[in-house]
């Protein structure tokens, strides 16, 4: 990472300039509007801690307006009623517009979230367009089934859009999460209110404008920026919202479920935290394993739900793995995400920055050995060195809690059975990585770890066709693939009598 993108040497790129901020108001019923209260809040540049812009602060009254617009668009508008092929055509235009604005969107996520610009331009934003095209292909292929009844009835099922959905997205990969949820909901024929994370509102507002330009009818896609306890809580408890899809922390996920239960028992899907195991066996290529392990935890400065933060290495190669990991971490370049030579940008904000540093202190207090890193770096901004602890015990806070930062916990194991037991010794169950040349070991471990996705001899191998989501306290429900579409549909059974039919 940090040296080549799309086959182009990073040295050929120049350090890019930040983008112009064009949209800072709420997007409701096809228009940018001020919040009802007139309040705004500051969004910050994590490179410096300085204010980027003031953004409209939506709360309950603004959520009410957005839900009303979405309800009208669903109950009486053309989006759920138009042929799926027409919805797909508009979504393809939407994807084309994202392609035309790759650089600006990538810059917004770099400025607001600290994402590497090169990752945004060559991975994140192209994938956003890809998600829209993938789900556009489903829009005219939403079919029910003909049922074989045991009596003289004809029966079939209809897969219908679930209705008005609330989409609550996190701050770590803002554009990616926006398009992942929105593209599936659009294909299903739903209307929606999106609540971006308060730390990263800018790209969501820009994408909303592209949706309007593509021809998505007013009221179908609404964006209300604001804070979780006000705007987010109002959305999750709204009586006219039919479903919530939430990605974020386990703690907030609980509150989402409570709000849904206490309101109209709306359907909920949750993609929550993780403490993913990365398991390296003795037969692995150590250099490859080190590269994968570092990508698994240090990519996006560890601010990713599937981060492979618990690294288990079999005893035969443990010492070599430790030595090479330390060497690699020291060569990892931390700095301005607009610089193409940088491997790791700043943490998203001051709160996250301070939380990670506290956990590094916990690691030392609990008796782990700091192998490398462990400090803030730079004179300003929220930069933290890639940090590796050894001699980590499973009951230490750095091994149990989701840190959401560039902190690796290295642990040793002897047998396959021990590796499986250690991997499952967590309240989370989002992802796992396995590095081995033994197909029998790979098959056994992949079937034994209690997680939603397993990557064998790779990591972050996401694809539009591969459903993604967790188990245990990592949540339930899938994004991506056909299952990602199905959660925005509801099944209705229709039965009519038949008379004098030659068969049932």
UniProtKB/TrEMBL annotation:
Q: Which reaction does it catalyse?
A: octanal + NADP(+) + H2O = octanoate + NADPH + 2 H(+)
The record's InterPro entries line, in alphabetical order, gives: Ald_DH/histidinol_DH, Ald_DH_C, Ald_DH_CS_CYS, Ald_DH_CS_GLU, Ald_DH_N, Aldehyde_DH_dom
Single Gene Ontology MF annotation: aldehyde dehydrogenase [NAD(P)+] activity
Superkingdom of the source species: Eukaryota
Its keywords, alphabetically, are: NAD, Oxidoreductase
Active site at which residues? Answer: 271
Domain Aldehyde dehydrogenase: start-end pairs: 32-494
Q: Which family does it belong to?
A: Belongs to the aldehyde dehydrogenase family.
Whom does it interact with, and what assembly results? Homotetramer.
Protein name, please?
Answer: Aldehyde dehydrogenase 1
């Amino acid at each position: 990472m940090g040296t080549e993108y799309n086959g182009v040497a990073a040295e050929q790129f120049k350090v890019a300039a930040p983008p112009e901020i064009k949209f800072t108001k709420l997007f409701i019923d096809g228009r940018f509007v001020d919040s009802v209260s007139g309040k705004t809040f500051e969004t910050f540049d994590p490179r410096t801690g300085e204010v980027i812009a003031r953004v409209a602060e939506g709360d309950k009254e603004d959520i009410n307006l957005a839900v009303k617009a979405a309800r009208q668009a669903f109950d009486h508008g053309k989006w759920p009623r138009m042929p799926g092929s027409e919805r797909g055509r508009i979504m393809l235009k939407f994807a084309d517009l994202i392609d035309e604005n790759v650089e600006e969107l990538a810059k917004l996520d770099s400025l607001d979230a600290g994402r590497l610009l090169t990752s945004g331009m060559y991975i994140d934003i192209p994938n956003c367009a890809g998600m829209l095209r993938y789900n556009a292909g489903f829009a005219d292929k939403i079919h029910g089934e003909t049922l074989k009844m045991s009596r003289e009835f004809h029966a079939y099922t209809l897969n219908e859009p679930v209705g008005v959905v609330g989409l609550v997205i996190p701050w770590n990969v803002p554009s990616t999460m926006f398009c992942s949820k929105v593209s599936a909901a659009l294909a299903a024929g739903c209307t929606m209110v999106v609540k971006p994370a308060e730390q990263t509102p800018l790209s969501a507002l820009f994408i909303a404008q592209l949706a309007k330009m593509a021809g998505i009818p007013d009221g179908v896609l609404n964006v209300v920026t604001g804070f979780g306890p006000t705007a987010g809580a109002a959305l999750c408890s709204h009586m006219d919202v039919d479903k919530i899809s939430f990605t974020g922390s386990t703690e907030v996920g609980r509150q989402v479920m409570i709000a849904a239960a206490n309101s109209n028992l709306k359907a909920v899907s949750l993609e929550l935290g993780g403490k993913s195991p990365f398991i390296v066996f003795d037969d692995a290529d150590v250099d490859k394993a080190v590269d994968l392990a570092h990508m698994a935890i240090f990519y996006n400065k560890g601010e990713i739900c599937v981060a492979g933060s618990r690294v288990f290495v079999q005893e035969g190669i443990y010492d070599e793995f430790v030595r090479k990991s330390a060497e690699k971490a020291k060569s990892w370049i931390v700095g301005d995400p607009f610089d193409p030579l940088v491997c790791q940008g700043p943490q998203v904000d001051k709160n996250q920055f301070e939380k990670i540093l506290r956990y590094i202190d916990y690691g030392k207090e609990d008796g782990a050995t700091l192998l490398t890193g462990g400090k803030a770096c730079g004179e300003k901004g929220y930069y933290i060195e890639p940090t590796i602890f050894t001699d980590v015990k499973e009951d230490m806070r750095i091994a149990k809690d989701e840190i959401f930062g560039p902190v690796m916990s290295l642990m040793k194991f002897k047998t396959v059975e021990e590796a499986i037991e250690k991997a499952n010794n967590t309240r989370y169950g989002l992802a796992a990585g396995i590095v081995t040349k033994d197909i029998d070991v790979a098959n056994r471990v992949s079937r034994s770890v209690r997680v939603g996705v397993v990557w064998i001899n790779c990591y972050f191998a996401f694809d539009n066709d591969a459903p993604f989501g967790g188990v245990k306290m990592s949540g339930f429900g899938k994004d991506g693939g056909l299952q990602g579409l199905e959660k925005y549909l509801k099944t209705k059974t229709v039965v009519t009598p038949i008379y004098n039919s030659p068969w049932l």
